[in-house]
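**Backbone geometry record:**
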Amino acid sequence: MPIHKSKINQFLRFCTVGFVNTGIDFAVFFLLNLIGAGHLLAQVLSYSAGVVSSFLLNRKWTFSVKGKINQVEIAKFVIVNSISLLASSSLLYIMYDLNHQDLWLAKAAATAGSILINFVGSRLWVFTGDRPIMGDAI
């Protein structure tokens, strides 16, 4: 089954949002450190800022969902991101700790896996909006 250009563009928007969220995460992290927050608190708050940004930008721009945000949508988003985090952490552990692959290669593979899980989960489950799910492959 061929992948349509609109789906490729949607994936590219998803990746762009990811880069923006990473920038937000780092900016908030270093800003909080500059004002004296501890690094663990800064990490939690900056990561959370990136996740909130990801939800809002992907909902509006990447997947063009209309209507009000609801708790079910938020819960689904948290579940998909938790699965992605678990999968990427597992892959990192397997590649780096167990198989002694290069750390950067392991991190890149884990990141690629998390991007795919997040995109597929977001597209097919979280941000479905009004479009039908059945027959709407990636």
Observations:
- The CA atoms of residues 81 and 131 lie 22 Å apart.
